[in-house]
Amino acid sequence: MREPFPWLRRSVDATTRLRGLLYPVAALLLLITAWEAVKLLVPANGVSIGDQRILPRTTDAALPHAWSVLTVLGEADGKSTVGATLVRTGGFTLGLALLALTLGTIVGVALAVLMQRFGWVERGLLPYVIVSQTIPLIALAPLVAGWGGKVTIAGQPWRPWMSIVVIAAYLVFFPVAIGMLRGLQSPSKAAVELLHSCAAGWWGTLLHLRLPAAVPHLLPALRLGAAAAVIGAVVAEISTGTAGGIGRQIIVFSQQSTGNAARLYAAVIAAALLGVVLTALVSLAEIVLRRYSRPGRS
What keywords are annotated for this sequence in UniProt (predicted)? Predict the structure, then answer.
């Protein structure tokens, strides 16, 4: 049956998309307004009760104006500008985070398939997968860098950026493995028995039933993994002392921000935007897999 008012549906979809764009903009404006309100109303030395400070300092060295963070992008930084430096270092970190997301996804999906296939593997391995996330990255990074220094791949020595990828992938594989496992186990018993009645083995059931059913659970896990990949890459750059990325650039700007912390805040915001960019790349996968992106769709 033909839809009577297709223009109405298109209008509703356009309104929904517009709202989806306006909400983040409104949240950003609200955050900037609150930032400037704190800057205006709170004393320069903050507010303390006894020896306990309850409101932060609002000097330019601690809390610069919002527009200062934007204008600092045009300032000179060596042979380039601050903005160009952040783009260069951010691109380096984004590449490592993307590699970590890919590696972590491969490991997480493989573990999920293995745990779904063998119940005894799930019972024995899943607790260790969960406990693995309690290890702080600051303690893990020197170990990975030290072990990597003794590894040679195809005659090539271990590179410092490889340690960053491994450390960031360590954060990625957990949400992917848990989400994928939940998705693989989501098909009903009746659906599994139906494929078995059609002489489908475990491999056929995996391809035609479990993997499509796991997509709605995998996509949110990939979004979490994308954010975790950026966090892991930034922390690993700082912990291993690897130069070239935005993690080390944050340390450099923090040492330069003696009277004005605008550069430091600009670097932190740039690092946060990397997570947005990587999450947007994950959304492209959702467009490709939109046929399976909602539970209940065949």
Answer: Cell membrane, Membrane, Transmembrane, Transmembrane helix, Transport
Note whether 137 and 119 are within 8 A (CB). no
Q: Among candidates 89, 103, 90, which has minimal Cα distance to 225?
A: 103
- Structural contact between residues 98 and 227, judged by C-beta atoms closer than 8 angstroms: no
50 and 77 belong to one structural domain: no
Do residues 44 and 91 both lie within one domain?
no
Please check the confidence at residue 219 and state whether its pLDDT lies above 50: yes
What average pLDDT score do residues 28-38 get? 86
**Structurally, how many domains does the chain consist of?**
2
Which residues are within 8 A (CB) of 5 and not within 5 positions of it... i.e. 6 or more apart? none
DSSP conformational letter for 135: S
pLDDT given at position 297: 44
Reply yes or no on whether the pLDDT at 178 is more than 50: yes
How far apart are the C-alpha atoms of 255 and 257, rounded to whole Å?
A: 6
Task: Calculate the alpha carbon distances from 91 to 95, 195, 224, 254, 275 in Å.
Answer: 6, 46, 20, 20, 12
Q: How many CA atoms lie within 13 A of 38 on its CB side?
A: 20
pLDDT for position 257: 66
Contact 269, 69 (CB under 8 A): yes
C-beta separation of 33 from 234 below 8 A: no
Residue 1 in any domain: the answer is: no
